[in-house]
Amino acid sequence: MTWQDLINEELKKPYFQELVTFLKKEDQIHKVLPPKENRLQCFKLTPYDEVKVVIIGQDPYHNIGQAHGLSFSVEQGDYPPSLKNIYQELVDDMKVSYPKTGNLTQWAKQGVLLLNTVLTVVLHQPMSHQKKGWEIFTLEVVKRLNEKTLPIVFILWGAHAQQFISYIDTHKHLILKAPHPSPLSAHRGFFGSKPFSKTNQFLTEKGMQAINWQL
């Protein structure tokens, strides 16, 4: 299976047709982020057959120059608060130097699917495209990933991401749960959760290449 196979299947369904119609209207009257060419970027950079790790976010960053289709990643510029906390945990966990970029493309190219539950947002309006159909699509993505023969690490930060747990076979895949890295919740157990080293330990044990988390 490829991601295009899944997209083609979903395109035939009424909910997805309604979503496409909704987005066309939104693009005419609002600044929608990320730009059209980047809305499915996570699937382009991390093919289905290559997915080893999934990090699930909520919806894209809603400021100009940030969202580019990868959860928690910024194309350029300042690091948002959640990403700063992710990097703090990365440095502590892996004993690497602090990342020089907020762009997580290098993770995606190694098999880390950086998936937002909602893939679009209106400029300066967080969660503005919630409950328009994206959640149905991303649930299908998770279900298809669960079917993979090779085990996957699902990194689920916060209650929003953890709603997918019931769709994941924990006998085959590894789930790493922690509070969300936002400043509101990071101190409740996100810091010290060691998701990066635990991921690499699991992948190595399963005979797969570890992720080079250094950016």
What's the shape? Answer: globular
Share of helix, binned? 25-40%
The amount of beta strand, in percent, is 5-15%
Largest sheet: 4 strands, parallel
Low-confidence stretches: none
The ordered H/E elements are: HHEHEHHEEHEHEH
Helix-strand category: alpha/beta
End-to-end separation in angstroms reads 30 Å
Strand arrangement within the widest β-sheet reads 3-2-5-6
Count of distinct strands: 6
Describe the structure.
- This protein is of the alpha/beta class and 215 residues long.
- Helix content is 36%, strand content 11%.
- It contains 8 helices and 6 strands; from the N terminus they run H-H-E-H-E-H-H-E-E-H-E-H-E-H.
- The strands form 2 sheets. A 4-stranded parallel beta sheet has the order 3-2-5-6.
- Strand 5, helix 7 and strand 6 form a beta-alpha-beta unit.
- The longest helix is centred in the N-terminal third of the chain and has 16 residues.
- The chain is globular and about 45 Å long.
- The chain starts with a helix and ends in a 10-residue tail after the last helix.
Task: Give the structure's gist in a few sentences.
Helices cover 36% and strands 11% of the residues.
